Known about the structure:
alpha+beta
Amino acid sequence: MEINSHIIKLSGRAELPNALEMSNNYKVTLQGAVNNVAHADNDDGTKNVIYTFKPVVVEIVNEMGEKITAKDSRSKSQLFRARMWKMWTNANTELSFEDYYDRLMNNLILHAEEITGMYGE
Length: 121
């Protein structure tokens, strides 16, 4: 089946530190990931592919060029897992990410007293 359109659907929200003004133009920059892909049949032999994009970093620039950066809405555990993903991709390991992450978390749990002693309780 032929693809008629590729469509991006924005999902989620961002908490802003300041109010926005009605009727002003803003430039919005998003960083995030596509967390779903759906195919919609157009009933004419074509289909649309719909990508759901969830932002994690949102930056807004007003007409004066002033930047407003939204608060990152991810939890600390989500940020930690994302950081571990980045480290895993840079590591020279044959482990899958899940095995790498499980091994790391098991070691963190095992050495929790030592870690909190090093970095504060």
